[in-house]
Amino acid sequence: MAGRTSSRDSTPDSRAGTYVPEGIADEFTQGEPGEAHGASSSDTTGQKPERPNAPALGLVGTLRWMWRQLTSMRVALMLLMLLAVAAVPGSVLPQRNQDAAGVLEYLADHPTAGEWLDKAGFFDVYSSVWFSAIYILLFVSLVGCILPRSAAHYRALRGRPPRVPSRFNRFPAKATATTSASPEEAADAVAAHLRGRLSWLPTFRVDRGGADARGSRPAAATVSAERGYLRETGNLVFHLALVGLLVSVATGQMLHYRGQAIVTEGRGFANAVVDYDTFEKGGWFRPGSLVPFSMTLDKFESEFASDTVAFAQARDFTAHVTVTEPSGEERPEQIKVNHPIVVDGAKVYLQGNGFAPEITVHDAEGEVAFSGRVTFIPEDTMYTSRGVVKVPDVSPGLDQIGLVGYFLPTAEVNEDGSARSAFPQPVDPLLVLEVYTGDLGLDDGSPQNVYELDTASLTPALEESGERVKVLARPGETVDLPNGLGTLTLGEDLPRYVALDLRHDPSLAFVLVFALLALAGLTVSLFTPRRRVWARAYTGPDGVTVVEVAGLARGDDAGLQAEVDRALGAVPGAEAEPAATGQAQEPRIETGSEKD
Amino acid sequence: MELANLSVLLVWGAATALAIGLIAFSVDLSRLSGAKVDARDAARSRDRVSVGAGAQDDVPGPVDAGSAVTGAAAGPVNRKFAGIGMSVTWLAAALLLIAIVLRGIAAGRTPWANMYEFTLVGTFVAVAVFAGVNTRRDVRYLGAFVSGLGVLFLVLAQEKFFVEAMGVQPALQKYWLVIHVGVAICATGIFTVAFVASVLQLLRDARDNGSPVLGSRHWGWLDHTAAPAALESLSFRLNSVAFVLWTFTLIGGAIWAEDAWGRYWGWDPKEVWSFIVWVVYAAYLHARTTRGWSGSRAAWFVVAGYACVLFNFTGVNLIFNGKHSYSGL
Ligand code: HEM
After folding, report:
1. CA A42, CA B45: separation in Å to the nearest integer?
2. Whether the CB of A29 sits within 6 Å of ligand 1
3. Does the residue B37 lie in any domain?
4. Number of domains in chain B
5. What strand order describes the sheet that includes A257-264?
6. Atom 6 of ligand 1: nearest residue by CA position
7. For residue range B231-264, what is the model confidence (pLDDT) as tens digits?
8. Which end of chain B is more exposed for a tag (fewer CB within 10 A), N or C?
9. What is the pLDDT of residue A355?
């Protein structure tokens, strides 16, 4: 584990070509696979399983070569850049899991290109084979890189600081002083200073020793000290935490479930797969993990700004609900945007809201053909909301009826007959529907979107002018449908609905812990200085004690000279040696005066 | 309303101050490079010596720039204009700070919830970081570029991103607005200053390596910036601070998204690009320590990373349509 020559060629300290601290396994930072594990003992740990039956050439040799390539820093670098590039298309093209409608639209607009893109996974970039391949390779590379490094670091943690070098003058930071104290006292003082005040939390790992006289050099009391093991520890924690993060996220994906339910005021839903409008789950999900609580929406409140600057901007949404536990225990709760509630380990979010007016349709024979709340989905910030009423259950012999149109909380009808909402609250509500007749196609069993009316095989009701008939209704009104189809009644009060998202992901705590560990490890590894300090105290020719201190850091370290100066300052009665100090420090005066 | 107008006025004041700073710093640089040809040669050979001496050379800016200027070879050059530049930089930072505070009072909330405000605060951070670093070591050679970018950002903010001061929608009403966005702005501001240092590093490196274009006299001012190694060291330190902040931005954003959007990560365009930024800067940190990639090659990663930062802020807000559409435009 001797220090090796530097591999970091254009960083400043490596130009000196002298020093790489142990424990910071710079062999990994080299590009050459041959050297990558070369002189370090981590080599054996990394390759052990392959050793016994490894022929010199052939398959195993090739595999080993590939492994070394993969775990080399240069390949990691390439994979990182590749990952960045591969992430781009997912932000440009619509993605299925966020914007399925956008994907369909894109496919319709670009039939040929779209199909190819689809085949290549460009609409599911983040679960595509190629994206996954890149990050999985990256993580394999990371593990291959980090495990041997962890082993090497573990050994380094139990090692001792390197012995005092014979010559100090090639070091970037050094200082000399004389003192009337004995060499032993001086060295003890430096050592005590470097250990720091808290014995259980030493700043430096310190060895006090001595060097025999050699040649012209007198015997000396020595100190060698090293700090910053945490730097590598932090780095390893960071990388391992990334692995933990990936594993937690993947586990969460497998175990999670998520359901969406639309609930109108006064109604409720039960936490059961069948009660959700959409339900999505991971591969290891078991229905048993749905705790059978139920929930009722008592009331929904919304608040919008009415000042001119922020006119109609949403200010607050609150869903007042009653949760009923499986035990029968009931309790009131409030769900707000940003403030999901947690029920039996599942989080319930308020994701959307709108109006679900009560609509009743009587057919030509006066029978009730449809009665119920219809969900109108807001299309703009003023809640111009679109909805569909399908009336299949007309009296025998009559055509089925389809109604499609808008609910406007605050209607603003323009001269050309077009209408939109001018405020999100029901100030002047109006229902505007077009009427279709024919076969709604509900009986052939193929699934249909309840929010869409397929008008292809339906006949619109037309005015004499050829324009589509628009049926207008205000709350409490009953209006005639055209062509004697019957009547439509809009309920007096306008129930609100909320779109609730219910989600259960048991991995959340792990994801958070690993993310924070990564952050902590990163911070420690970037900001912990890695330094070595050596001191030598001996009796000079004129009988006074001379103390020399030298320091060495990894990478850029503006505080190194200050560290050396402080160590020297700890010597009792030290008098800086002007000539030597001045000379030694000349190129670093500015640095020495820096505060960091 | 009145406070909001005063805030706008102060932003223009800050932009003007930065414009003056830009001029003053440029005059300073051109004076430095005009000051005798042999001063330049002396400075260059000095660099070479200190690079050759190697180990000492994580000495940042001041030694090289300073000694080239004040050292015996160059003769004393009056840095009065750099002084003016620094004074107006501080002034601009102060004006901007007041403008931001007033804006916050006018809107009745934290003043960083839309693109306009983000730009103001980000510019403030960049200017303040530059001025702050300068109290520790002489980095006045960065001044022209930082003020130049500052003017550009402020004018863009005022002309293109401006929205009236007002409250925010429910999804933004959380203390995470203060933390997540605040940290993101700090990171962006610091990335900006680091980017300037890396660009100078690249230019300087090209000049020192005898680039035909950059070797010409017009680029003589480059000799009065710091040595490439010192610029790289400055850029690295700033980038590592910003990278940690960026990591926190991602984590904080995810925690917030978990509450606001019902999932911690969903590959929304803003999330994608924040991730890309993170990966590019991670690659930068790795490149720095990879043989054959450190030095000016690594600096290109900073350029790429910063381009992604800018795109994440402008392109993603204005072009793409995601959950993260809080630009107010
Ligand atoms: C998910 C992918 C990865 C990310 C996001 C990542 C991120 C980072 C970051 C931010 C640092 C900076 C900390 C520092 O400089 O000390 C770092 C350092 C490092 N990473 Fe990674 N890394 C990844 C994969 C890898 C892989 C695959 C390898 C090995 C082949 C690797 C090897 C290293 C090494 C050796 C360092 C230390 C550099 C030094 O000592 O200065 N990393 N990594």
Report:
1. 43
2. yes
3. no
4. 1
5. A278-281, A257-264, A496-504, A346-355, A341-343
6. B282
7. 998 999 999 999 999 999 999 999 999 998 889 9
8. N
9. 96
The DSSP output letter for B322 is -
Question: Which residue's alpha carbon is at the smallest distance from atom 7 of ligand 1?
Answer: B282
Give the Cβ contact number of residue A516 at 10 Å: 15
The answer as to whether B90 is a domain residue is yes
Kindly provide the ipTM of the predicted complex, given to two decimals: 0.83
A76 in reach of chain B (CB within 8 A) = yes
Q: What angle do the packed helices B80-107 and B143-156 form, to 10 degrees?
A: 30
Residue A48 exposed, middle or buried by CB count within 10 Å (0-12, 13-18, 19+): exposed
* Best CA proximity match to B299, nearest among B206, B190, B173: B206
User: What average pLDDT does this structure show over A241-246?
Assistant: 96
Q: What residue type is B309 in one-letter code?
A: V
How far is residue B274's CA from residue B35's CA, in Å, rounded to a whole number?
45
Q: Are A220 and A183 in contact (CB under 8 A)?
A: yes
Q: Inform me whether the pLDDT recorded for A235 exceeds 50.
A: yes
Phi, psi of B7 (to 5 degrees): -60, -45
Identify whether B65 is part of a domain. no
Q: What are the b/e assignments for A430-450, b being 16+ CB within 10 Å? A: bbbbbbbbeebbeeeeeeeee
pLDDT in tens, A423-458: 999 999 999 999 999 888 777 766 677 788 888 888
SS3 at position A170: coil
Share the mean pLDDT of chain A.
83
Query: Are the CB atoms for B318 and B329 separated by under 8 Å?
Result: yes
Nearest to B154 by CA among B179, B181, B119, B184: B119
Asked if residue B72 belongs to a domain, the reply is: no
Q: What does the buried/exposed string (b/e) look like for A128-159 if buried means 16 or more CB atoms within 10 Å of the residue's CB?
A: beebeebbebbbebbebbbbbbbbbbeebeee
Q: Which residue has the tokens 């902590």?
A: A520
B49 touches chain A (CB under 8 A): no
Full domain range(s) for residue B272: 3-22+80-327
Between chains, do B58 and A508 touch, taking CB under 8 Å as contact? no
